[in-house]
Structure formats: C-alpha cells, structure tokens
C-alpha cells in the first residue's frame, strides 16, 4: 500500500526480524538482485499486520510463523524504520514496520526451518560486520539498531 504524506511517496511494508542462535539476523535476496532485505512485504486488503506478515513469510521463507515451532509463538512489534526505497525514484520512501517472534526459543527453532521459496534466491545470516553495500538502507538501519541493542554480534 502506498500513501502520500508531506509531499513524499511512502511504501508501507512489514518485516520479520529473525535472530538466530549465533546472534545473526536473517536477510533475503530476490532472484536477479544484488542486495539483501529483511523478509516481509505489503498488506493485502483486509489483512492485519500479523496476518500479512505470516502470509509473506510463508511466501518468502516457506514457513508458517505461528505454527511451525514446537514452542508456542507470538509476533510482537519491534520498531519502524523509514528511508529511501531501494531501486525507486528519489523521494520514494519505504516505511518498514518490523516484528519479532517470541519467546526466544521459538525464534531459535525457526533458524533451521526457514528456506528460500520461489520468490527468494538466497537466505543468509548477517552480523554487524555484514557488507553494507549488500543491504538496503532500511536493512542497514535495522542491522545497526540490532547491534546497538546487543541483539546481534
């Protein structure tokens, strides 16, 4: 969903921040692209944030966030990040509302269950030393926030 605000175009997206047992964040790369992004996507009409995120993660990571783990899981808000949208005209901003899976045990279980789907060419785990040239601007912001909060190495 795009919306106009203060003369700028905004792309409204949802994303899953998944941190593995090695304190690295999951990032994805689409076919034919050179940069990685935080998995997620846009809401469809009538979807809640959680419904949209669950659907997007099924599409991109081939996993159902709320039923794949043995540990009962909930999806909780993490934060919102806004920056120039990758590959879009200057002034087109992306507003990414991010979520995490809780409890930590459920999040760690997911690290062995996620796999690239037909929409994603590659998944990898990024720590704070990950090459910034290979991340979107919001991806860099998220990685730096996770490092500041000592959630990744």
Q: Which descriptors apply to this entry?
A:
153 residues, five-stranded mixed sheet, two-stranded antiparallel ribbon, 7 strands, 33% strand, globular, disordered N terminus
Quick description:
21% of the residues lie in helices and 33% in strands.
Distance between the termini: 34 Å
- Which band does the percent of strand residues land in? 25-35%
Uncertain stretches of 5 or more adjacent residues:
1-6
Count of strand segments: 7
Describe the main β-sheet briefly.
5 strands, mixed
Mean pLDDT rating: 91
Specify Rg, calculated over alpha carbons.
Answer: 15 Å
Tell me the helix content: 10-25%
Structural class: alpha+beta
Give the overall silhouette: globular
Question: How many helical stretches?
Answer: 3
Q: Strand-and-helix sequence, N→C?
A: EEEEHEEHEH
What does this structure look like?
This protein has three helices and seven strands. With 153 residues, it is of the alpha+beta class. The strands form two sheets. Strands 1, 2, 4, 5 and 6 form a five-stranded mixed β-sheet that branches. Strands 3-7 form a two-stranded antiparallel sheet. β1 and β2 form a beta hairpin. It is globular and about 45 Å long.
